[in-house]
Structures are given as structure tokens and as C-alpha cells.
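Re: Re: C-alpha cell formats

Sure, here are both.
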Amino acid sequence: MNQTERQKLTGLIAAPFTPMDKRGEINTGLIEQYATKLKKDGVGGAFVCGTTGEGMLMTSEERKAVAEKWIEQQNDNFKVIVHVGTTSAKQSKKLASHAEKAGAYAVGCMGPMFLKPSRVEDLVAFCAEVAAGAPDLPFYYYHIPSVSNVNLPMLEFLDLAKSVIPNLAGIKFTYRNMMEMFQCLRAEEGKWDILHGFDEELLCGLSLGAKGAVGSTFNYLAPLYLKMMKAFQNGNMEQARALQYQSIKFIEILIDYGGGVIGGKPVMKMIGLDCGPLRAPARNLSPEEFNQYEKELKMIGFFDWMKERVKV
């Protein structure tokens, strides 16, 4: 499949938490219910086994099991992208090959944290080996310097990678350099699929031309973001800004309780989809912290924001 044959992703792609039982073992039995909830909320897909999904804290076999269960939930309106990144190109290539055989829509990979590449050429070489494991699937580079500590110019990456990664689709862009993101969106007359990665700044990404976004808070606040996107599309910027500010009020509290992963997984329990504890070295909130967290979210009306679904 070449670039011209691929459709770009649009709308919201959730970055799901990996359900685990009380012992910290993966609980794939919850994934069908999880996917059903996302679909009802209007989410168009899932980017699994990434940062939010604790992919780097799972074994390869666990990651395969989680990916397979999510892929079972895939349909024309709900696409599954499997994150296959590790510190080993060979291991990542095997995970990519598995994702392709299992029927995933696409694969993604962040830069390797160990002996991180200092040149774009080295990052491209790493990604080329990984992408070759799933040659018939779109490949997305996952740009998230705050986690990977790999921060190389993405415009240069696209320019060098296009000739050596035939299935390169674009970038999951989770970085606050909006100028660089805009350059990538405009590169080669908008050829690349650039997915916005910061939920609290989604409106900024939309204003620059982003059509799709991947985020952890879409797991529970998709109705709010879809309402915001609809307001933006209708030219109602005042409403769009007000809705973005609502998400920011939530994310301020989320950060106080550990951020998107540590603070996010407990929210799933609050909404009735208990995804269990986080694995070490991530910490889990104490019962007292959990109760205070829930109280603060109630105070800002968080649990009401999830109820209104919109047609898009």
C-alpha cells in the first residue's frame, strides 16, 4: 500500500489503559467492554500498548495478547494502531509482524530510549527496520520526547524516511513545538498524516489543520472533545474555546495526581471500568488520594461532561 492509497485518520483515537487485575496481571477480558464504551462515545479507534497502555512495562507476549484482543474489536469505524516500540529494533520488528498478522490497521513506534539516536539518520534506520516487520500496514513514528528523550527534527525525519520506509504514513506528534507540527502538516502539500497528541491543546492543533488526534483523556472525555471539534467546524470559536478550557480544568487536577497515566487509570475506576493498578515503577494512588481526587473532579462537574454525546 503506497501513501496515495492510504486514508488519513480523522477524529479521536483513544490511547487506552491496559486493564490489569489486582495482582498486576493483564486482564484482556475487560477489553471488549472497554472498546464498546469508546465506540458509544464516538471514538474512532485505539492506539494500544503505548505510553498510556504501559507498553514498555509488559512482556512481548503480554503485548501480543493485548493487541490481539483490541484487534478483535476493530471494524470499519474503529481502527486499531499497535505501538510496537522497544529499545530493540529486532524485538519491535517482531511485534510489528505480529500486529500485521493479527489484522491491525497500523503500527507505531517511539524512538529507542537506550542509546538514544543523536542523528536523524540513525532514528530513520531504527524505524526502517521496525516498519519492515509490517510492510503492508501504515507506519507512524511516535514523537514523544518527554517520554523517549529522543528529540530530533521531525521535518527532517519525514524527508529522510520517505525514501527508506515505503509504508511511512506520518507522525503521532506529542510535542509542544507547534511550529514544527505545522511544518510537518504542510510538508509536501499535506502528504503526511500528522496526529495531534496533546489533549489540552487540541484546539490549537485543529487551528493548524490537524484532522486526527490521539490522547489518553479521550478514554473518558470524548463527548466533550467531539463537541469542541463540532463547534470549531461550525466556526463557533467562543464555544470551542470554552470547551477546551473545561478539559484544561480537568487536566490541571489530573496533573496534580500524577498526570495522564498515573492519574488517568484511577479515573477509569471512577467511571465504572476498573482497569486495575499500574505496574512498577509507576505508583498507585492511596485510597485517601483516590477519594480526594474523585471529590475534586465532582466539584468541577467532570462526571457531567461525559454524558452529552454529539453526532459528528
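Second one below.
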Amino acid sequence: MIESQLLLAWNLIPLELWNTIYMVACSAVLAIFFGLPLGVILTITAKGHIKEQHALHRFLGFIVNVGRSFPFAILMVALIPLTRWLVGTSLGTTASIIPLTIAAIPFVARVVEAALKEIDGGMIEAAVVMGSTPWQIIHKVMLPEAAPTLILGYTSMIINLIGYSAMAGTMGGGGLGKVAIQYGYQRFNPILMLITVIVLIVLVQVIQGTGHWLFKKIIQKRRRGFHA
């Protein structure tokens, strides 16, 4: 009995682990691609910033807040028509990337906004006085200064996506969530469920450790440049 459960885990978990990594990696890249500029626009259009636009700032803030208010399970169901239109189906690993991405974009936007707001206003004012364009201020001052905080924020976002991907797996999305529910819980296979949970914990620890390592590397590089 135990041998058969372990064999099933050996056959299922490597593939579904890869599916989870695939879903999370694609969703994270897309969320950063869309969420980073959204967060930058939210920041620079705020009151007193380099491109102050009250109406645009409030509108984008409202959209982001609405996006963050949806529970992921409800969001997946609500996005079924869009998912089918984009990838041809609402089931499977690739289909899950759509709701995962849309769920993560508002989170990334707020992470970016919070990180950029921590930057010393004097640095931005100095760049303005030196004649820097808004793009130069964003690209050469704001984003480099916020890089350590952004790394930590992106790390949290990826970890959240792992949790969301497990939930997606329970709704036909594939990945480790599918293994835990369909083959572990529904077929009364506690060993498979335990192994799946352990694999998810290890995956989260690896990502968290990598994020902290990158954070420390950036801080150390900045300190060396300062002392030089």
C-alpha cells in the first residue's frame, strides 16, 4: 500500500512541480511586465510628484483596488470567458496563467508604488534641477534606488502566486494543487498529500531564500560603491 502511494507520488509530482513552476514563472513575468509601469504611473501622477495628474491617479488607484478585492477563486470563474478567448480553454496549466497574472498585477503595482514612495524626495528634486527628463528620473534614479525593496516585494508576489497556483490546481488548473486534491484528498492518499505539501514548502523556501540573497547582493554592491 505505502509502496504504491510512493510510486504514484514519484510518477506525478515531478511533472506537476514543473507545471507549477511554469505557471508561476510565466505569471510573475507577465505581472511584472504590466504591474511595474502601472505602479510607476501611480507614483508619478500622485500629488506633488513629477507628473501630477489627480484624475488619472485616482482612476488607476480605483482599478487597482478593485483588482485586489477579488478572492482568487471568484476571479478564476469570472475570467473564464477571457481565458477561453485567449488560450482556447479555461482548463489546464496554460489557461491558469491568465487569472494568476491578472490577480498579481494589482499586487505588483502597489509593491512598486510603495517602494518608489520610500525614495528620498531630495534625490528626485536634484535630478529635476539637473534637467533630467521624467523618463531619466524613473530609469536612472527611482527604479535603481527602489531595487532592493522591489526584490522583496516581487519575492512575496511569487510566493503568493504559488498559493494561488495550488488553488488553481483544485479547479482544473494542473500543478501541485491538482495532485493534492485529485490524487491525495479525493483518493484518500495521505502520503501523497504530505509529500505535495513538503514540496510546496521547499519551493517557497527556495524562492524566499533567493529573494533575500538578491536583496543582500544589491545592498552590498551599493555599499561598496558608496565607500569607493
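The chain has one domain: 2-223. The mean pLDDT is 85.
- S.
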